[in-house]
């Protein structure tokens, strides 16, 4: 093991409780002591290198490292407990399988077993040194006991002090040998003797095997040998699924993982060719698993699986990584989401220090994003490079073949032009991104040190490239639709509001964050004679149909206003038009004539939320106007008008329901709150007032509905 030694201790050095004696493995001792104190059955310590944002697993205890393979290197932004513990400087508790699935679905996909987990940062007041996690069987109570919390917190504080002491003396603490044997088998040899114990087991009529935590067989009786069809000598020292060909299937190996992680007995039935069904019962402990094998009495219809040729530990690692990364990539939406996820999670997991994501369009490469390059220009200069150019990125996309370069000499020998443009790295993987049989781009992973890419590593990187390609293909399509939707929305709404005599106006529009982020909310200001007009409305839906209908309504209102129709007639004409169009959608609308010279406004309403009027003295009134039904329902509907005072300094707030509808909040309370904020901020410049009224919604990650706001302030210069 790699250890930290202190040499000769001086009188000013920390006592033994804070510092490990010479030659002892600091991390392993701290971890096992912590696990013993709280009765945990597995755990790991991560270290955070200086000036880096990646946690690196330094030692693991109680379980094979293959169980945690996808998280050996963890970006600090990753949505997993150890990263969250460091980000938030607190203990993170996961009380069981349901809690894990709800909060950390990526982990639950790879490890869908009942277990509890606590993650803590290892830090002092001035520096974060890493993190720790420990796990308990699924039988642990759903809440962490105060004693357990105190023990874990104190242990992490002691470890942080040890690491701080090492750093102060320029002594590095590095990875240590994993501890798979978490305990000792006590009592059996003392009571029966090892020879008699073996004789007893050999007399049992069913098979018995003992597996260590890595799945290797340490003991098997003759009955097990006969049932499995493999001599005892062929079993010992091998993993069960590797020694028995017809058990070499991930389904059976998964049962072993479930038993070891949950510490709960589990079982499965397997077919020994050609027709013998065997029952396997697994009894786990922290030292390994006891397996009972017997002939199955009755078996429902099952499908046997053939032998696998892969080495079991290798398959476990690649399977876990693929599941974890696939789950993460399904959550990406835009191209920048994909770039961010590859940078924060995939690149650290495979040891890469920098990456570039390249797209392929119209015969050229396009730099979609990059991360980790000290000089961004070395990547961006490849933007719009022809696919026929003699560069490794273009070659990977054009031919669909991955390329791995273990040193700068290797790269420059095949691509001499790269000598004139070094990027500061020493090894590269150029991975073509192929989706649905066509190239969508390439992923370039760069490494700080020369690297010999093994066959297994090349296979894993190529597989990950396939997952990235699918996510990137979806993201590129989403971005195109997103740009199209926003372009359509921008074309249908006014680019700017006209200047009106006696009226100051400003508007805000926020699309919903669901669907295409396009909707049917609209507003307009029409400088007509003798009266200018204002309108705000909301067509049902958040799609292209709603947006298209919104554009037709806005155009119709502007046309009816221009020919001189009064508010009531504008609403009736627009209602009949919507019905004549044969649309199944309805629309709310609020239309008003503005007459600032006479200090008034005439309004007509069709099922729209009531406007708010703020007087110069700060009082706010809800204008609960008489009105008619939604547009598009009744061809004979009428829309009565109401005249409202609009004197110098008054502010009219016209809005759509997205500004006041919040789940769990009464609509009247929401309108009252909007009126309160209008009253408090109404003296501000109109643009600042608009930002204040929509501020909460503009900052929200999710908006269920569009938000439109039109503010009108009467001025005395009419």
Explain the overall architecture.
The chain is built from 21 helices and 26 strands. The protein is α+β, with helices and mostly antiparallel strands and 718 residues long. The protein has 4 domains: 26-169, Beta-Lactamase; 200-295, PAS domain (Beta-Lactamase, 2-Layer Sandwich), CATH 3.30.450; 329-484, 2-Layer Sandwich (Beta-Lactamase), CATH 3.30.450; 493-714, PPM-type phosphatase domain (Phosphatase 2c, domain 1, 4-Layer Sandwich). The longest helix has 38 residues, at 455-492. It has a 6-stranded antiparallel β-sheet, with helices on both faces. It has a 5-stranded antiparallel β-sheet with strand order 8-7-11-10-9. The model is unreliable at 1-23, 182-192 and 298-318 (pLDDT under 50). Strand 10 (276-285) and strand 11 form a beta hairpin. Its EC number is 3.1.3.16. Keywords: ATP-binding, Coiled coil, Hydrolase, Kinase, Magnesium, Manganese, Metal-binding, Nucleotide-binding, Phosphoprotein, Protein phosphatase, Transferase. This is protein-serine/threonine phosphatase.
């Amino acid at each position: 093991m790699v250890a930290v030694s202190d040499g000769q201790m001086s009188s000013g050095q920390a006592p033994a409780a804070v510092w490990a004696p010479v030659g002892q493995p600091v991390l392993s001792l701290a971890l096992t002591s912590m696990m013993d104190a709280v009765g945990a059955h597995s755990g790991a310590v991560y270290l955070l290198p200086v000036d880096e944002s990646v946690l690196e697993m330094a030692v693991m205890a109680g379980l094979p490292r293959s169980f945690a393979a996808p998280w050996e290197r963890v970006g600090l932004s990753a949505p997993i407990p150890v990263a969250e513990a460091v980000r938030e400087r607190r203990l993170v508790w996961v009380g069981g399988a349901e809690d894990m699935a709800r909060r950390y679905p990526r982990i639950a996909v790879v490890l869908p077993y009942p277990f509890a987990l606590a993650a803590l940062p290892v830090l002092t007041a001035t520096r974060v040194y890493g993190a720790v996690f420990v796990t308990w069987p699924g039988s642990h109570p759903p809440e962490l006991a105060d004693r357990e919390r105190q023990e874990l917190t104190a242990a992490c504080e002691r470890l942080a002090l040890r690491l701080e002491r090492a750093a102060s003396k320029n002594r590095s603490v590095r990875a240590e040998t994993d501890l798979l044997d978490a305990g000792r088998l006590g009592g059996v040899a003392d009571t029966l003797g090892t020879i008699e114990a073996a004789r007893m087991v050999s007399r049992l009529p069913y098979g018995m095997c003992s597996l260590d935590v890595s799945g290797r067989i340490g003991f098997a009786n003759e009955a097990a040998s006969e049932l499995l069809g493999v001599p005892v000598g062929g079993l010992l020292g091998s993993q069960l699924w590797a020694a028995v060909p017809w058990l070499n299937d991930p389904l059976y190996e998964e049962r072993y993982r479930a038993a070891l992680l949950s510490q709960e007995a589990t079982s499965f039935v397997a077919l020994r060719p050609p027709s013998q069904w065997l029952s396997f019962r697994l009894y786990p402990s922290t030292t390994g698993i006891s397996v009972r094998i017997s002939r199955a009495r009755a078996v429902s219809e099952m499908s046997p699986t053939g032998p696998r040729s892969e080495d079991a530990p290798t398959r476990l690692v690649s399977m876990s990584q693929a599941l974890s990364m696939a789950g993460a990539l399904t959550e990406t939406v835009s191209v920048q989401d994909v770039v961010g996820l590859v940078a924060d999670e995939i690149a650290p997991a495979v040891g890469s220090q920098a990456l570039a994501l390249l797209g392929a369009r119209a015969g050229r490469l396009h730099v979609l994003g990059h991360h980790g390059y000290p000089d961004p220009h070395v990547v961006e200069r490849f933007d719009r490079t022809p696919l026929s150019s003699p560069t490794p990125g273009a070659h990977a996309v054009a031919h669909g073949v991955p390329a791995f370069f273990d040193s700068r000499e290797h790269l420059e020998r095949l691509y001499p032009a790269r000598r004139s443009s070094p990027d500061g790295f020493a090894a590269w993987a150029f991975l073509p991104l192929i989706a649905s049989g066509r190239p969508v781009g390439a992923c370039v992973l760069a490494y700080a040190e020369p690297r010999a890419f093994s066959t297994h590593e090349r296979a894993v990187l190529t597989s990950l490239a396939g997952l990235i390609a699918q996510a990137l293909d979806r993201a590129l399509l989403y971005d195109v639709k997103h740009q199209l939707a926003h372009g359509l929305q921008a074309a249908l709404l006014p680019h700017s509001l006209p200047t009106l005599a006696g009226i100051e106006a400003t508007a805000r529009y926020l699309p919903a964050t669901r669907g295409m982020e396009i909707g049917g909310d609209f507003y307009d200001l029409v400088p007509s004679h003798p009266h200018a007009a204002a309108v705000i409305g909301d067509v049902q839906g958040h799609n292209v149909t709603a947006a298209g209908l919104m554009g037709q309504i806005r155009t119709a209102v502007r046309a009816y206003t221009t020919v001189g129709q009064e508010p009531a007639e504008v609403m009736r004409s627009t209602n009949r038009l919507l019905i004549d169009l044969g649309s199944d959608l309805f629309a709310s609308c609020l239309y008003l004539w503005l007459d600032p010279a006479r200090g008034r406004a005439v309004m007509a309403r069709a099922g729209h939320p009531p406007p708010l009027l703020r007087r110069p003295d700060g009082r706010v009134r809800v204008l609960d106007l008489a009105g008619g039904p939604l547009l598009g329902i009744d061809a004979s509907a009428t829309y009565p008008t109401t005249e409202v005072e609009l004197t110098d300094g008054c502010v009219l707030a016209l809005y759509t329901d997205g500004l006041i509808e919040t789940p769990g909040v009464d609509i009247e309370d929401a309108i009252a709150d909007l009126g309160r904020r209008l009253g408090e901020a109404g003296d501000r410049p109109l643009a600042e007032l608009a930002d204040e009224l929509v501020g909460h919604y503009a900052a929200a990650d999710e908006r269920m509905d569009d938000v439109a706001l039109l503010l009108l302030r009467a001025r005395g210069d009419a």
